[in-house]
Every structure is written in structure tokens, then in C-alpha cells.
Automatic annotation (TrEMBL):
Protein's name according to its UniProt entry: CHAP domain-containing protein
Location of the Peptidase C51 domain: 30-115
InterPro entries (alphabetical): CHAP_dom, Papain-like_cys_pep_sf
Pfam families assigned to the protein according to its UniProt record, in alphabetical order: CHAP
Length: 260
């Protein structure tokens, strides 16, 4: 059975793909010419071995119905978890777009979408990461992902999502929820490849454990000083911006059973 990390890894591998709004490789795979946001989700599910838990569909409302029929539907955004299938309404009065939830960014819902564009619409012909206001979300389907980690460990894909953070929390012996909470929005650039940040007050217990291991002030907030200290321990460029290469090095370290 597929994991949420499997689905997100495959979706991310397609970022930047460009076609027209009604044609391209996802339409060819599905066997239909038309708006392909749902075909993209279906293709990702097929590549991840998740066709039993994510429906094959081209018409977005039918995907929502599929989840509802199986008791896997949730209205609104409360409880969203990376890997959930998010359905949007952009003013048509019905579900008209779908994407794969990756995380939150400044109170906006971040998804990886097929057939969108720079404006975040539903017919841009590209695979992009989009951040939208929660008011556009009708609801989401929760695929019945396996919770068992792969024998080879977490994916080394350069994006610190829920699986990466859960592994770090496990090693740090902190509560395990797949999120880094209590962070300051002004530090966003310092950890731009960590996609499961929750902004607010209080800092993070996991970040404090990381800071203790890295030998920096333990304030619980992941800023540039924390990124540089982690990069130093991981043997990568120490620029204070924890991007894809830094995350990959961290994921390898986590797979080796070490926090940093």
C-alpha cells in the first residue's frame, strides 16, 4: 500500500511540466482530451501504487463523491494532512479543481496541482505548487495510506514533509505529529524546503532538540542561525537557507538513525 510520502514524491517530480489546458501526457495516459487536474492526480496515484485509495477520475466532483461513499471525505480545511486530495471551487458553485495537499504557508493551503498556472486557476496547463486561501477549499479526501515506513527509510527527495518530520520527532523523542509548530513567519526563507511548518507562538520542541544537538540557542524557532548550524553538522553549504540540498543531507542523516 502506498504512503503519503510516495504520492508527494511522485507529484513533486512533475513540477514544472507544461502542456496545454486540454492535452499532454496525463491526458494521453488517461485516454481523454480535456482539463486534466484530476487526470494528473489519477496518474500520480497510479505511479505510486495508490489506485485502491485514490480514485481514477477526470471530472473533479466524481472524485469527491468517491471519497464520500467510502467515509473518507472531510469538509473544509480542518485536519488537513500532507497527501490529502483537496477539492476547490473557484466561483462556479461546484467543485472544479483538485490538487494534492503538501502543507500550510502563512495560513494558505499549499497543494501540488496539474493544469494550473501562475494565477492559481484551473486551466493553466502546468504542474505547479500553489498556495490558496482556505475559502476556496470545498473539502478533501483522506486516502487510506499505510502508516508503516518503507524498509529503506524516508524518501531522499529534498522536501521535508510529514514523513521527514515524523522521523525526526521519533529520533528526538518528542510528540509525533509530522509538523513543526509555533514558528515565526519571518523565518520562512530560512527553511523554505520544509513544507509542514505551522506558524504561531511558542516555538517547537523538536527544533529545541535540534538546536541543542547543533550547539545553538534553544529558542524553538527555526531561523538562519539554526539552518547554518544544521548545515555545518550535515556538511553542506552554510548559507542559512535550508533548501533542497540541505534537506536531502538531513534525510540521509535521519535514515542513518541520527537527528542531525
Amino acid at each position: 500500500m502506498a504512503t503519503a510520502s510516495d504520492v508527494l514524491r511522485i507529484a513533486r517530480s512533475q513540477l514544472g511540466y507544461t502542456a496545454t489546458s486540454t492535452s499532454g501526457k496525463f491526458c494521453d495516459w488517461y485516454g481523454l482530451k480535456g482539463y486534466w487536474c484530476a487526470m494528473f492526480v489519477s496518474w500520480v496515484a497510479a505511479q505510486a501504487g495508490a489506485t485502491a485509495i485514490i480514485p481514477r477520475h477526470s471530472y473533479t466532483p466524481t472524485g469527491a463523491v468517491w471519497f464520500k461513499q467510502r467515509g473518507r471525505w472531510h469538509s473544509g480545511t480542518r485536519g488537513l494532512t500532507p497527501g490529502d486530495i483537496v477539492y476547490f471551487d473557484f466561483g462556479l458553485g461546484r467543485i472544479s479543481h483538485v490538487g494534492i495537499f503538501e502543507g500550510w504557508n502563512r495560513g494558505r493551503v499549499v497543494t501540488i496541482d496539474g493544469n494550473t498556472g501562475a494565477s492559481g486557476g484551473r486551466s493553466g496547463g502546468r504542474v505547479l505548487r500553489r498556495a490558496r486561501a482556505p475559502r476556496y477549499v470545498v473539502g478533501y479526501g483522506r486516502p487510506a495510506y499505510t502508516t508503516q515506513p518503507a524498509a529503506s527509510g524516508i524518501a531522499v527527495d529534498g522536501w521535508a514533509g510529514a514523513a521527514t518530520i515524523r522521523r525526526a520527532q521519533q529520533l528526538a523523542r518528542t510528540p509525533i505529529d509530522g509538523y513543526i509548530s509555533g514558528q515565526w513567519k519571518g523565518n520562512k526563507k530560512a527553511h523554505w524546503a520544509v513544507v509542514v511548518m505551522r506558524y504561531g507562538r511558542g516555538g517547537s520542541t523538536l527544533v529545541r532538540r535540534i538546536q541543542a544537538a547543533a550547539g545553538v540557542s534553544q529558542d524553538g524557532h527555526w531561523g538562519k542561525a539554526t539552518s547554518r548550524a544544521m548545515q555545518r553538522r550535515l556538511g553542506v553549504t552554510q548559507d542559512g537557507y535550508f533548501g533542497n540540498q540541505s534537506v536531502k543531507a538531513w534525510q540521509r542523516r535521519l535514515n542513518a538513525g541520527k537527528l542531525i
